[in-house]
Write a structure and sequence with these properties.
The protein is α+β, with helices and mostly antiparallel strands. It folds into 4 domains: 73 residues, no CATH class; 59 residues, no CATH class; 93 residues, no CATH class; 102 residues, Sandwich (lipopolysaccharide transport protein A fold). Strands 14, 15, 16, 17, 18, 19, 20, 21 and 22 form a 9-stranded antiparallel β-sheet that branches. The longest helix is centred in the first third of the chain and has 30 residues. The radius of gyration is 38 Å and the shape is elongated.
């Protein structure tokens, strides 16, 4: 009788027959084809799922594809330092959008109409001032007309110029001059301050300019050193070109090309300047009452036998515990006990909410206010 265990051990060391070899071959071939197919699917997925580099986040690696005749290769490049350094600038720009057309009366989110059509306030950060033919500003509203009933968007040079103007205005100087590019041409631009408003003009590079105030001629070098409080005594300006006026040419033709002639405010107005005007001054109405405090970072002017007090720059009036009036500029009538406030913030006793507006008239004693429109005449 044969032993089954011995027979099985003997089979392990017996060479496979031709039939067995065919069975093994038929079993291995499908398995190999399946593995090749699976591997091929993975390669296809890697090839057909690229993203355009421009759509990739800047803080991730950029996927690059390199194809040769043998096989496609997928490589991942590391993010470089340049992409990391570019992020803060983008964030800073988005935090402080720059309006290329602006006015103090507009506020944060004004209504904007261009050629009769309404646009979002964001258009003011993109429209080119060069295409504007007329603009009308009122509290919370801008109405703009274009030259050809067609909006043109600002160039890089115009945006750069607007940024320069913003930096210069922040310094608060009376007179400034700086280089700009307008319509592709190099020019010099001047910025002149009138109170809280500014006006600008552009001239050929190297144009020689002088200033005339109260009959006295100031060189541009002297004008550049003038503080901002000079602006509050000026109400207008005339451009007098030397070559067009024989009398001026005979006197200043060798020195200047243009004289900016300023119109002065009321000569009865006296002005004082201080880093912070102290505050306690007793002003009594007809009925008579307590004193109030006033402050301003630029200057304080008095007129009308001290009936009118004008505060310039971060101005503030504190009337005891009754009210607090603050703004860029305040004109106070001590007799009527009223104040006209530009870019106003007003708080009355017992009222938690602060009243804000581009131009507000406040009755300090009665605790009432009135919203005004237009430009203040002070």
């Amino acid at each position: 009788m044969k032993n089954p265990v011995k027979e099985r051990i003997k089979m392990l060391f017996t060479n496979p027959s031709k039939s067995m070899k065919k069975l093994i071959y038929l079993a291995l071939v499908p398995a190999c084809l399946a593995l090749v197919y699976l591997f091929g699917v993975q390669v296809v997925y890697a090839e057909t799922n690229p993203k355009a580099p421009g759509n990739l986040p800047t803080n991730q690696g950029v996927t690059e594809y390199r194809v040769n005749q043998a096989r496609p290769e997928l490589t991942i490049s590391k993010p470089n330092d340049d992409s990391k350094q570019a992020l803060p600038d983008t964030k800073k720009e988005s935090e402080a959008p720059l309006r290329l057309i602006d006015n103090v009366e507009l506020g944060e989110n004004p209504l904007v109409f261009i050629d009769g059509k309404e646009y979002s306030a964001e258009i003011l950060t993109r429209i080119s001032p060069a295409c504007m033919s007329m603009a009308k500003f009122s509290p919370g509203k801008a109405e703009i007309s274009t030259r050809k009933n067609q909006i043109e968007y600002a160039t890089k040079a115009e945006i750069k110029t607007a940024k320069i103007r913003r930096q210069i205005k922040a310094k608060g100087k009376f007179y400034s001059r700086y280089p700009v590019t307008i319509n592709g041409h190099k020019r010099d631009e001047i910025l002149v301050r009138f109170g809280s408003h500014f006006t600008e003009g552009s001239f050929p590079v190297g144009y020689r300019i002088a200033l005339s105030m109260n009959g006295k001629i100031f060189s541009e070098k002297e004008a550049l050193e003038m503080e901002g409080n000079y602006a509050y005594n000026m109400t207008g300006i005339n451009y007098r070109y030397i070559k067009e006026e024989p009398e001026l040419f005979s006197k200043y033709g060798d020195e200047y090309d243009l004289i900016l002639q300023f119109k002065s405010a009321d000569t009865g107005l006296k002005s004082q300047r201080s880093g912070m005007i102290p505050g306690s001054s007793k002003i009594t109405s007809q009925s008579g009452d307590e004193k109030f405090e006033y402050r301003a970072t630029d200057s304080v002017a008095y007129s009308g036998n001290n009936q009118f007090i004008t505060l310039f720059g971060n101005a503030e009036i504190i009337n005891g515990r009754r009210s607090t009036v603050a703004g860029d500029k305040i004109r106070f009538d001590a007799k009527a006990r009223t104040a006209i406030v530009q870019n106003a913030r007003v708080t009355f006793q017992g009222k938690k909410k602060t009243i804000e507006g581009a131009l507000i008239k406040v009755d300090i004693d009665k605790g009432t206010y009135e919203m005004l429109s237009g430009t203040p005449e002070f």
